[in-house]
Amino acid sequence: MIIRGLRHLLRAWRGGELGLLGFSLALAVAIVSGIAGFSDRLSRSMEQQSHHFLAADRVLKTARTIPDEWLAEARSRGLRTATVASFRSMVYAGDAMQLASIRAVSEGYPLVGELGTSDELFGVASAQSAGPKPGELWLDSRLFALLNLTMGGGAEIGDQKFTASQALISEPDQGNMNEMLAPRGMINYADLAATDVVQPGSLVSYRYLFAGDESQLDAYAQWLMPHLDEGQRWQGVRDGQPAMAATLKRAEGYLLLAASLGVALAGAAIALAARRYGERNTDNVAVMKALGASRRQVLTHYGVQLGLLCVVAIILGGFGGYGLQWALFSSLQGLISVDVAAASWRPFVVGAVTAVGCTAVFAMPPVFRLSKVSPMRVLRRGNDEDGAGLLAGALSGIGGIGLLMWWYSKDILLSTTVLVAALVIGLLASVLVLYLISVARTLLINRAGGALRIALAAVYRRRIGNAFQVASFALSLMALSCLGVLRTSLIEDWQLQLPVDAPNHFLINIQESEI
Fold first, then answer.
1. How far apart are the C-alpha atoms of 219 and 420, rounded to whole Å?
2. Burial class of 256 by CB neighbour count within 10 A (0 to 12, 13 to 18, 19+)
3. For 371, which of 99, 198, 298, 487 could close a Cys bridge (C-beta 3.0–4.6 Å)?
4. CA 476, CA 26: separation in Å to the nearest integer?
């Protein structure tokens, strides 16, 4: 049956009957898998890049040290760990002293991202994958100036002497405003006890960093959460960096809507192609019925063709979707500075499910209507337009598209909003077309010439189908317009978070009279 169906498919393709439908299905898979893949890769890239703001994938914040067993449990699950202790302390260099914000970091810090240091004060940063070695002290460039300290000079914190070996330029998790305003210093965690500055009652905050696969982190979080008390918080980038979380949420909302509108756009294209496919095969089915073919044979004949066509469209559309992803990332190469995440299989599954779903809800209804064609059509042609059938097909198609959008976005509000908007716009477009056709027929039917009168009569006879086509085009334009408007709105929203003349350098503790 499959071999015979493949022969029929090739014959129908050469005859031009399946060209438009096959192209529409492949285009639908390419659009959906391309947009979904672009959204998925960009979202994962932003998520990975945002972890640099934590110097880890997850952070445990606490005001006291945690049991060693907690870290041992994390390592046993394949997670990498590091510890950061932050406190305020006086830094001494000869007779000079200055209050600074000190961070003691363990081996392995940072787990994600890089430190920036320089051999010169206020120099260009060079990347460092690890913190200071025991006995070394990295200081903010302005702290060198405040202490009259030269590079490689000696400094003291508490009871411990250090060598100021590097100027600290940047830290991946430098997000706390108090730490940003105060002069900063960094030492090795192994030197913390020797300083003897941490005493009972000292104001010290601990950050335990964890990095690994999401599944490992989630499993460890389930083990850890029952052990935490009220003063301990397990955080990801969305919890620890509210501004970054808000940016990610806005970007994800736009990308999800883009993919959802891509599904709607694909459905509209397939609906038009499927309707044309059904119209062109009506006479063929009438001949088959006249030669003794049963309804079941008609359904099997065209069902196998559509199934094989769907498989071919999925394969070709999958390659097209990957090419679309490449084109989108290439066009944004100058705007995206993060490393793009590798392609995953999920967007192509979304494209395949979209193709199967659109074939079922858009292409199969015309086939079911074909199976009901009377053999008498061979002798007597007439208007086979079925208004009720078109309406039922449109409603089933809209419902199927709604389910696909919900399955992809997992956002019932977003899916419902897009679906209701599509229904309203499609209904308004259909009513407007029906009204214009009726008005044109009333005003022009008695004044027009023979050719125009025949054309108007044909348009009026197929007014429901014409209204359906216009509604499909209206939905396509709605999808493209929404993407353009929302893209502009998203970028403008990001740009308006800070005014154009917002300062990016600040002087602290300056009296007004000293300006």
1. 39
2. buried
3. 298
4. 17
Total residues found in the chain within this entry: 515
The residue with tokens 């932003």 is 46
How far is 325 from 12, CA to CA, in rounded Å?
32
Pairing of strands 136-140, 58-62: unpaired
DSSP secondary structure letters along 34-66: HHHHHHHHHHHHHHHHHGGGTTSSEEEEESSPP
* CA–CA distance, 373 with 281 (Å, rounded to integer): 10
Helix (H, G, I), strand (E, B) or coil at 118: strand
